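Troubleshooting: if your tokenizer reports a length mismatch, compare your output against this known-good record of 66 residues.
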Amino acid sequence: MPRKIRQLISDLERAGFSLVGGGKGGHKKFRHPKLAGSVILSGNDGDDAKDYQEKQVRRAIREAAK
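Known-good structure output:
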């Protein structure tokens, strides 16, 4: 069963990411002080997360923890 977008957002926030402006429409943009780029998630909080979104979040959290 796929996770929800709200769960991915929660994971990012626990890892030190913060929501920043700049997302268009249903997109949310997150930044971490240690990373040069940002993570952009599309969809509403209750939507199922796509596989690529889960991988993107895992990779970003892993890079921020280094």
